[in-house]
Each structure stands twice: as structure tokens, then as C-alpha cells.
Amino acid sequence: MRITTTIRTDISIILPQHSALFRIGTHESTTESTSTIPHIFGANYVLNGHGTYTDHNGTNHPIRPGTFFVRHPFFSHSIHIDHSHPYKDLYLCCEQITAQTLAELNLLPDTPIQQAQENDKHILNTFTKINNIFIQGTATVLTILKHIEALMEAVSISAQHIDSDLARIHTACIQLADFSLTPLPRIQDIATAASYSERQFRRLFKKYTGISPHKYRMSKRIEKACTLLTAHSIEQVSDKLGYNNRFEFSKQFKEHMGQTPKQFADNLLATLA
């Protein structure tokens, strides 16, 4: 077992009657590695930072903002935080609300980790409500279970939105890399087809791919051009990829590749000879 090297700044409210514990804190360690303690249910919602969650099967799952992971009782796991980024999460720990009770009420998720939306207001509000019932001294087993159920539902809904966004961005990637259409669809048209405003689409596209829609299309265009130049003239490649003329194509190709299409084709042929 690895040694835990964690310093957590917590707001801890203890309810002696039920030994329930709620925490909101910031990790300040380079790495946290821990094993689940029997009879303790924990849930974390990541606000900042990155890391890896290793489940009881030894499968690694990335941790990033919006990740929600559960510490299942009776199942070993470990969490490794990337110390190169500040890490912060919301943490919920309930003692003596056993795994059996949670399982019987179908409150335990099928997977120990889910990717929800970053700073999801419904998830944040649920954590706040749980915090408040401890502060007000109104926490009971029933109220805790009720709010855990609400938390799991909020995470599930948020994760479904992520899945929907990913599916639509994936479709957009296919459309942006399809150069058979004449004229090529505008970014605005692709955004509308995905039911996004252009601004929202550009933001989500960059969030999930790391680059803008324009740069993605250009990179795919140039990638395709490199393949076509082995058997087609510059004019033919320019036409196949939807450029207005060979000069526009050559300019963009050189900006991206550092050489003209002709130089690229000549160098490739010389390499293959």
C-alpha cells in the first residue's frame, strides 16, 4: 500500500448521532493514494486539476474538472493527483450509511467514475444543500439518503449532457473532414445542424478537441492533400479539397507544412525512389 501524502483544508461538520461527515476541501499534495475503508461511502466532484483514478480491477480512469468518482466500500482503489496543476474537489463522506443500504436503494452508480460537466450548478447546489443540513443540525439518515439520491441524479443528468455533446462534436468532426461537398459547409451551418449557436459550438469544439473548428478543418485538409499529391496534380488536389484556386491551396499548404505542394511532392517522390 502506498503512503498517503495529503494535506486537505476541510470544512468538517460532524453529526455525533449518526457519525456522518461532510467535507469541502483542497488537496495540496503531489499524490494521494488510498484504499477504501469498509462501511464508508465517499464521493468526489473535481473542480480543478488532473489525475488518475485506479479502480478495484486495476483500470485507470483520467481525473479532470467535472469528474465525479465514488469511493465504494469494500473495494480497493487509488487516486493519483498530478501535482503540476492545482487540485480542488468537493468531497462527501458518510459513515455508517452502509453500502448495503445504498445498494438496496439503488443509490450506488454502476461505474465508480463518471465525467460530468464542469462546475455543474445542479451538482454544486446539491453539495451546498448537504452542507447546509449539517450546519443547521437537521441531518438525519433519511435526509442524507435523500440528498445522496439527488446528487447521483444530478451527476447522471450532467454526464448524459456530456455524452450528447461528445456525439455532436464527433459528427461535426466528420463533417469538417468531408471535402466531397461543394461548396464546403460553413462553420455556422455545422453549428446550427448540431443545435448550437456558433459561439457555443466553437467553445465546445475546442474544449473537446483542443483546437478550433477552422484549424481542425485545415489540418484535415492538409493531411488529405499530402496523400493526394502522390498521384494528382496541384490543380486537381486544390479542386478536390474545395479551394477556390491553386494559389489559395499552395499558400495554406506552405503555412502549414513549411514547403510548397510541389516541394512536398518532389521530396516524397525522391524518398520513395
The CATH superfamily label of the largest domain reads: Jelly Rolls
Sheet with the most strands? Answer: 7 strands, antiparallel
CATH topology of the largest domain: Jelly Rolls
- Uncertain spans: 1-22
Q: List the total number of helices.
A: 9
Q: Which secondary-structure class do the elements indicate?
A: alpha+beta
Radius of gyration, in angstroms, nearest whole number: 26 Å
Mind telling me the CATH class of the largest domain?
Mainly Beta
Q: How many structural domains?
A: 3
CATH architecture of the largest domain, please? Sandwich
Gross morphology is: elongated
The helical percent reads: 40-55%
Q: How far is the N terminus from the C terminus?
A: 57 Å
Mean pLDDT over the full residue set: 81
Q: What percent strand? A: 15-25%
Q: List the secondary-structure elements in sequence, H or E.
A: EEEEEEEEEHEHHHHHHHH
| SS elements, strand count | 10
Textual characterization of the structure:
With 273 residues, this protein is of the alpha+beta class. It has nine helices and ten strands. It has helices spanning 99-104, 121-135, 141-176, 187-193, 198-209, 213-228, 234-240, 246-257, 261-272, and strands at 8-10, 13-15, 20-27, 40-48, 51-54, 60-63, 67-71, 78-81, 88-95, 113-115. Strands 1, 2, 3, 4, 7, 9 and 10 form a seven-stranded antiparallel sheet that branches. Strands 6-5-8 form a three-stranded antiparallel sheet, with no helix packed on it. A hairpin with a 4-residue loop joins strand 2 (13-15) and strand 3. Helix 2 (121-135) packs antiparallel against helix 3, helix 4 (187-193) packs across helix 5 and helix 7 (234-240) crosses helix 8.
